[in-house]
Amino acid sequence: MTNRIYQRIPALVLLGAATLMAAGSFWLVQLSQQSASNTVSQTERTDPDYFVENFTYSKVDGRGRVEYVIEGVKMKHYPVDKHSVIDKPVVRNFSPDRPPTTVRAETANINGDHTEVKLIDNVILERAQARGDEPLTVTSEYMLVLPKKDIVTTDRHVDIRVGSMRLSGTGMVANNATREVTLESRVNGIYPPPNKP
User: Fold this and answer.
1) How far apart are CA 178 and CA 136, in angstroms?
2) Interior CA angle at 29 toward 24 and 35, to 5°?
3) Angstrom distance (rounded) from CA 192 to CA 190
4) Any bridge partners for residue 56, and if so which?
5) Which residue from 76, 103, 164, 191 could staple onto 91, CB 3.0 to 4.6 Å apart?
6) Domain at 44-190, CATH class
7) pTM of this prediction?
């Protein structure tokens, strides 16, 4: 009987080793499935994948000239739709044949392809004096900047100052290319009399 036990020991050792390997494999499969279920894919993430502080982003045209610059205190990038959120943004537009324009706000949301910049809270648009025009200042709580079209628009209340002239209204389209500003509704204005020679 003892001989039989000794003859079965190699088979029992192999059976034990096979059982341990099967249990180990099962444990690894369970661990990998648990890890995979805990890992959120890049397209499902709602938290930022990176951030940048005190930055400057410049968009350059095909000739190497700066078209516009975006600065901010902090930018967070979200992988789900590749949009970015900027704290204390400043957007500056540069063009050799157009007056420079600067827009500031508390927050900016930029879409993934940088075609829309949504400026939120304490928005101030300033266009420098150029070609004999008075400097322009526009304030609102929200503005949408379309950098490629060189247009700023809003559906909210705006206050406009051009020299000593004052305008206010709801809804606006400002075209920097044509230097035209259109108010859409509830327009009020103060036009001081011209200075007499």
Assistant:
1) 14
2) 125
3) 6
4) 71
5) 103
6) mainly beta
7) 0.67
